[in-house]
């Protein structure tokens, strides 16, 4: 498989308040030849700190988290590190959530019930395309 980020692995941070979800995502992504897991976060505050420390290419950001939700964490990450791609994740495929994450600066949005392969495709696509062309599970939003 060709690497999607200029000949190096795509560095991914997983932010979700449910440990089982984080472990499931990191386990699936870690076996991909073109992806490297840089860390995990259980809330928005931890996600911001992990981005600063680990410099990922992509953050998988759960929308509903304690202490600081994914929308606010996305807003702060995009303000400080505009080149970092953020993929919003939610249990629901609600237009309001999609619009909210897009407004916060997310590059894509995927409902957690989508297939792992769909999520993988969105991660790879985010790294390839220009910033601020948000997509929802492979489709443009807005």
Please, could you describe this protein's structure?
- This protein starts with 9 loop residues before the first strand and ends with a strand.
- Helix 3 runs parallel beside helix 4.
- Strands 2-1-3-4-5-6-7 form a seven-stranded mixed β-sheet, with helices on both faces.
- It is globular.
- It has 142 residues and is an alpha/beta fold.
- It contains five helices and seven strands.
- The longest helix has 13 residues.
- It has a single domain, classed as 3-Layer(aba) Sandwich (Rossmann fold), CATH 3.40.50.
Secondary structure: number of strands: 7
Mean pLDDT: 85
Largest sheet: 7 strands, mixed
The figure for the number of domains is: 1
Order of SSEs, N→C? Answer: EHEHEHEHEHEE
3D shape: globular
Strand content: 15-25%
What distance lies between the first and last C-alpha atoms, to the nearest angstrom? 32 Å
Poorly predicted runs: 1-5, 132-142
Continuous helix count: 5
What oligomeric state do these chains adopt? single chain
| CATH fold-level assignment | Rossmann fold
Biggest sheet, strands in spatial order? 2-1-3-4-5-6-7
Q: Over all CA atoms, what is the radius of gyration?
A: 13 Å
Q: Class in CATH? A: Alpha Beta
Helix content: 40-55%
- Tell me the CATH superfamily: Response regulator
């Amino acid at each position: 498989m060709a690497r999607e980020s200029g000949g190096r692995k795509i560095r991914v941070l997983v932010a979700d308040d449910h440990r089982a979800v984080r472990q499931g995502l990191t386990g699936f992504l870690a076996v991909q030849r073109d992806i490297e897991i840089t860390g995990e976060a259980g809330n928005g505050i931890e996600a911001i700190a992990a981005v600063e420390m680990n410099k990922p290419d992509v953050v998988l950001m759960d929308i509903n988290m304690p202490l600081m939700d994914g929308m606010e964490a996305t807003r702060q990450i995009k303000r400080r590190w505009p080149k970092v791609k953020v993929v919003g994740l939610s249990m629901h495929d609600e237009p309001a959530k999609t619009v909210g994450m897009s407004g916060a600066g997310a590059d894509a949005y995927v409902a957690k019930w989508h297939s792992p392969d769909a999520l993988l495709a969105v991660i790879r696509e985010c790294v390839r395309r220009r910033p601020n062309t948000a997509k929802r599970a492979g489709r443009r939003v807005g």
